[in-house]
Amino acid sequence: MTSIIFFLLAIILSSRTSGATSRGGLFEASAIEKHEQWMSRFHRVYSDDSEKTSRFEIFKKNLKFVESFNMNTNNTYKLDVNKFSDLTDEEFQARYMGLVPEGMTGDSQKTVSFRYENVSETGESLDWRLKGAVTPVKDQGRCGCCWAFAAVAAVEGVTKIANGELVSLSEQQLVDCSTANNNMGCDGGSALTAYDYIKENQGITSEENYPYQAAQQTCKSTDPAAATISGYEAVPKDDEQALLKAVSQQPVSVGIVGSGANFKHYSSGIFEDEYCGTDSHHAVAIVGYGTSEEGIKYWLLKNSWGESWGENGYMRIKRDVDEPQGMCGLAHRAYYPVA
Ligand SMILES: *[C@@H]1O[C@H](CO)[C@@H](O)[C@H](O)[C@H]1NC(C)=O
Ligand SMILES: *[C@@H]1O[C@H](CO)[C@@H](O)[C@H](O)[C@H]1NC(C)=O
Questions:
Q1: Is the pLDDT of residue 23 over 80?
Q2: For the segment 49-68, what is each residue's pLDDT rounded down to a tens digit?
Q3: d(CA 252, CA 151)
Q4: Among residues 18, 99, 151, 265, which one has the fewest Cβ atoms lying within 10 Å of its Cβ?
Q5: CA-nearest residue, atom 7 of ligand 1
């Protein structure tokens, strides 16, 4: 009975979501069929029928959530089922984030200068990818070390801007070796502690030299350094204008609330979520900004959940919102490394 209802719902939805995506074919199948297709698309294998049944129930809930969200044409973005769709929101938050709370990192204690305070020309839009300062989207996998990916993206950017060369750098080195001050590998950490480590270690090696394993291991040799930094600075808190000045000069790592169901299933468009709050558990890099065709200002975020999430691994998220801390708190914990 339920599957018949889903099948009918799917037909209704497929006729409404015209011009959706190349994945539109998914909407013609029942939830069970969709789950099967989804399993093969994301190479998911369950250990037995009972696990499959319980995962299907979660998938079905997520599918329903996504489909009903997409029926509201007022939304400025779309959701889609993705590799996280058989996880509960709690499981998702526990596995794929990894920014420790502000009090654990010394975020607020350090007073550092803000070298970009007098930047006046930020332009209408900027995309650091087009300037060759952003490596391809990476995937943290099931390891709560977003903090390492956010830090590496910012260091890759500033290194390219300072030296002219873009080199993919090693998150694994940070996961294994940056263990001071509450950096705990796959159990969480913060980008600014990673910056301190890179400075003190006199560099970070390349991804190629120290590849990602999605698990914490013992710290290996980190030679040769592929990039060095002299330290980091903080963007003044809760100030999107200051953040704009900083991002106009280099990619910036930020904390963000990434645990909500909408964020989890974001697929395309300009993201906003008035309920996401400011209690950030996730870290990403801001690598640009602009204004959409519809006139909505956005930030361009590079995430570390692979290319199948969002807009090929990226999110455009609403910029210049009423709340000073920015959408989902993105202007509250913003730091950038100094070459
Ligand atoms: C879309 O927005 C309009 C205008 O604000 C509102 O009247 C309408 O109820 C909204 N539609 C949905 C489906 O929320
Ligand atoms: C910004 O300009 C003010 C006024 O000229 C100056 O005092 C300050 O040092 C400048 N800040 C930076 C970071 O250059």
A1: no
A2: 999 999 999 999 999 999 99
A3: 8
A4: 18
A5: 74
Mean pLDDT over residues 113-138, rounded? Answer: 95
Q: Which atom of ligand 2 is nearest to the CA of 118?
A: 1
Q: Please name the residues in contact with 44: beta carbons below 8 A apart, sequence gap of 6 or more.
A: 38, 55, 86
Cis peptide before 101 (omega within 30 of 0): no
- The Cα 87–Cα 161 span in angstroms is 39
Strand partners, 206: 169
Signed CA dihedral, 326, 233, 171, 339: sign only: positive
Position 29 scores a pLDDT of 53
- Mean pLDDT on 166-193: 94
Per residue in 39-48, is it b (16+ CB within 10 Å) or e — as a string?
beeeeeeeee
- E-strand spans in the chain? 77-79, 126-127, 231-234, 252-256, 266-271, 282-291, 297-302, 314-318, 334-338
Atom 2 in ligand 1: residue holding the nearest Cα: 74
Helix axes 31-41, 49-71, angle to 10 degrees: 100
Ligand 1 pocket, residue 74 CB under 6 Å: yes
Q: How confident is the model at residue 13 (pLDDT cuts 50, 70, 90)?
A: very low
Ligand 2 atom closest to residue 115's alpha carbon, by position in its atom list = 13
Pairing between β-strand 282-291 and β-strand 297-302 as defined by DSSP bridges: antiparallel
Alpha carbons 93 and 154: distance in angstroms, whole number: 23
Give the number of residues written for the chain: 339
